[in-house]
Every structure is written in structure tokens, then in C-alpha cells.
Amino acid sequence: MLPELPGVLTGDQLRATVASIAAEQDADGALPWFRGGQLDPWDSVEAAMALDIGGAHDRAAAAYRWLAARQRPDGSWAAEYRAGAESAPAAESNHAGYLAVGAWHSWLITGDEHLATELWPAVRRGLDLVTRMQLAGGAIGWALRPDGTADDTALLTGNASLFQALRCGIALAGLAGDAQPDWELAVADLGAALRSRPDAFADRSRYSMDWYYPVLGGAVTGTAAGERLAADWDRFVVPGLGARCVSDRPWVTGAETCELALALAAAGQRDAAVEQVAAMQHLRHDDGSYWTGYVYADDARWPVERTTWTAAAVVLAADALSGATPASGLFSDPSALPPAGMPEPGQHAGWVPGGAGTVSP
């Protein structure tokens, strides 16, 4: 069932948005920002998840297979591809981890045991690299240096995303019957850093993602989540337009607004979440795609592009708020993934929601 948000988005409108994403996919499965544009692994996974929500399962699987086929032996991907070739070779930790989120999301929606089995080795290599990049204080370095060691700079948004990715990886490990105690220990230390060690991360507090992502990624929950979102609300939210990308610019962006909606849903603030999805609909194009952002001081769209990942964020938010698919809780319910406390090795290896089956290793 395709999601819909009454009074905001109909099922037909979301179907058009999914179709707009599919229209940008290359014949070999590559899913770039837009046809002929750049592709990065994180945003490609985001767009593939939207395809799965819309029922385009073959297209989503093709996007995941494209990524798996281009993984490097060390578990990394290039930061950017163009026309199938690496155009920015730097290896970033959040790119290495995010396939786990897509693979788990795909499993929740389709129950496709074959695809989960096929993607598991790539997920495992990626998250093994992530754990090797973890720093002494629990945070994870943002990139690999040329000598293969982790940069000692950690980015809060990327780490919050990796918190979710490691938990998805642990869930997949349970399906595969392949316990990953190092991941369990890594996510416990990472969660502690995200909640209580702000000095472990570079100061990028002008970016709205650093504000809401610890809630969206599931590291900050309950009362603390509500307090965090309330603290900077007026700094980032423009009534009727959505969320700023950065606090000091008159620029609202669609993906950040929908991600904020996901964080609000995770904090139990559904009405506020729906309000944000409604607020960003001024970015919708006639074909169902979405402009990336809007500089309201100049009444101008900027950049002048309609990106697959912006459209995907709309679809993910609509699904989370409507509960339309079996994956709808992945971004809106922090309890939908294995616990991320301080476990004994292997404690969560058999965690499977709802008694799902076991995937062969």
C-alpha cells in the first residue's frame, strides 16, 4: 500500500514522486542525484528506499546491486561517481555504513531472502570498516586518510546516521546467523558519545542536521529528544516554509525539512511532523519531483535542480507518518531496531522483529 498524508499528499501524488525518482535511474541500476549528475552512496540508498516504498522493488534492488558491485576491498566506496566511474575517490564512513540501512529496509518491505543474502557480504565489509574507523572516545572518523587510517575529525550528523546503520547491521546479522559482537560494542560506545560527549565532534552547529539527526538516528530518545528539538526550533524552522539547512542563511531545503519530520515522529510529535511535510510542498514540481531548496529572501529556488534524494525524503516521511509499509517504523520508532546499550558480545545477534525468518550466510 502506497502511503498518503490526508490534506498534504495523496497516494497518486506520492506515486508520481516515486516515478520521478525511477525516471532518473540509469539502465545499469545507478541511481544518481538526477540523470547525468553525480551519485554518492548515501543518497543513492535513500532514493532506493523510496523506490521500495513505492513498489518498484526491482529498481531498488538494481540500485543496491550497483553499489555492492562497486565496493572496494576495504569496504569503502568512492565519495562520488559520475557516469559509473569514481570522480571523488575519498572514502567516507557514513557512505560505508548506509547500505545496511537500505538492506534492512528492503528486507522489512519485501522479505526478499535472496537479496538480503546477496547484500550481506557488502554490508558486513562496510560496517567492519566503520568499526575500524572508530576513535578512542566512541565517535567515528569521517574519512580515511591516504594511509588507510581514520581521520580524527568526527562529524555529528554522519555519526548519528552510523548509529542507525550499525543497529540495522546487527539486525541483518541476526537474520544471517552471523553474530557481530564488535558492532554491538561499537554502537554502544557511539551512542554514549552522541548523547554525552559533544566535544567528540567537530562544531558544525550552524547546520540543522547536527540539531535533529541524533534524534532521527535513534541515539537520543524520550524526553531528551523532545528537549533537543525544542531547543533550536526557532533557529532553524521557518513557519510555513520548512527548515533551514544552515541557521545563518535564508534558505530552506526539502530534504532537511522531511528529515526533521522523521525526527519529530521519532520523538512522538506526529502533528508537528505532518506540519513540516506540508510546509515544504512549495518545492513540489508538477511531475512529482522536488526542488532541493528555496532562498526565501530572494524568492528563488537554489540550487536549480530536482534531486532524487529530496524526493526520497518526502516518500520516507510520508511512509513513517502513515504507517503504510512494514518499514514505516524504521525512522519513526527508536525501538524498531536492536537495543544499543552496553551488551555482552553476541547478545543481540538473534534479535529479529516479529519472528522473521533466517537468512543463510
TrEMBL record:
Domain of life, source organism: Bacteria
InterPro entries: 6-hairpin_glycosidase_sf (IPR008928), 6hp_glycosidase-like_sf (IPR012341)
SUPFAM superfamilies: Six-hairpin glycosidases
A Gene Ontology BP annotation from the UniProt entry: carbohydrate metabolic process
Listed Gly residues bias regions: 352-361
Region (Disordered): 332-361
Protein name as annotated: Prenyltransferase
Source lineage: Bacteria, Bacillati, Actinomycetota, Actinomycetes, Geodermatophilales
